[in-house]
């Protein structure tokens, strides 16, 4: 029997490939949120089990270099698959720019 996290990963990897990704938000929701969570918190279905990184953590963000993140997205890292077949380098760069925007402060009611 295939573990559920492996089945999810296989489903993601077997999804149809796009020649060019026009909507990076949709790409993130379809491919990345399973581990990183729909909000980037790292609390996706497989992320809890696999240790999905919280993209919202300011301490984590401060340690990251844009080039390293682009490489991770395109080639993969640890349990994260690479997306070189789905994203161009320019698209990966735009995705990093969106992810690394500081979260806007939450207003108190």
Which key terms come to mind for this protein?
109 residues; mainly alpha; Cytochrome Bc1 Complex, Chain D, domain 2; disordered C terminus
Describe the overall structure:
The protein has 109 residues and is mostly helical. The chain has a domain at 25-99: Cytochrome Bc1 Complex, Chain D, domain 2 (Orthogonal Bundle). It is built from six helices and two strands. A two-stranded antiparallel sheet has the order 1-2. Helix 5 (66-75) crosses helix 6 (89-99). The N and C termini lie far apart (49 Å).
Q: What is the radius of gyration computed over CA atoms, rounded to a whole number of angstroms?
A: 14 Å
Structural class estimated from helices and strands: mainly alpha
Q: Give the tally of β-strands.
A: 2
Here the CATH topology of the domain at 25-99 equals Cytochrome Bc1 Complex, Chain D, domain 2
- Annotated CATH homologous superfamily of the domain at 25-99: Cytochrome c-like domain
Q: What is the typical, i.e. mean, pLDDT?
A: 78
What portion of residues belong to β-strands?
A: under 5%
Amount of helix: 40-55%
The CATH C-level class name of the domain at 25-99: Mainly Alpha
Q: Give the count of helical stretches.
A: 6
Span between N and C termini? 49 Å
